[in-house]
Amino acid sequence: MALPLVGYVVANLIWHVRPLVFFHRIPLLSKLAMTTGLLLGIGVIAASPERPSFDINAIVADGGAWDVTWRRFLTDIANPGLYRYDALWSMLSSQDLSGSWMIYGVAVSAALLASAIATLVMLRGEEFLIGVFAMMYEILLMQALAMYVIMLLAYTLCTFNFWTALLALMILQYYRYVQRPAGH
C-alpha cells in the first residue's frame, strides 16, 4: 500500500516545481491526462495475457494465482513495469475487434486527443513544452498507479477474503454516516 503513497508524494514534489504549477491551475489539462492514464492502465491490465484472472472465484480460490506472498505479489504481479503495450495494441488492431474493445479504443483515443488539443490550445511558448512533458508524466504516473491499485485490491480481497472485505465495507459505511459532534 506504500507504493501509491510514495508515488503520490513524489508526484506532489514534482508538481510543485515552479514551472509545472501552471499545469495544475488549469484543471482541464490535469483531469484529461489523469483520465487518459487511468484508461490506459485498465486497458494494459485487461489485455495482458500474463496477469492473473480478475474473476471473483479465481481471486478468492485457495492456492490460486492471487494466493502468493507479498514479495512475489510485488515483483511478479503488481509491478507495472512488467506489463507492456504490445498485448493492448494487438487487441486494438485485430481484425475481429469486439464491441467492448472498440468502445475502449475510442474512449482512450478521445481522451488522449482531447488532452493533446487542450494542451495545444491553452498553453503557449515555454509553457507548452513543459505542459507536454507534464501531460506525458501524469498519464504514465496515473497508468502505473491505476494498475497497482487494481491489482492491490484483488490481492487484498484474496488475502482478507470476500467476507472480511464485506465486513470492512459495512464498518466503513457505519462510520461514514455516524453523527459527529458539532465543532467549537
UniProtKB/TrEMBL annotation:
Keyword Membrane among record annotations: yes
Keywords from the UniProt entry: Membrane, Transmembrane, Transmembrane helix
Transmembrane segments: 28-47, 101-121, 128-154, 160-178
Domain of life per record: Bacteria
Protein name: Uncharacterized protein
Species the sequence originates in: Thalassobaculum litoreum DSM 18839
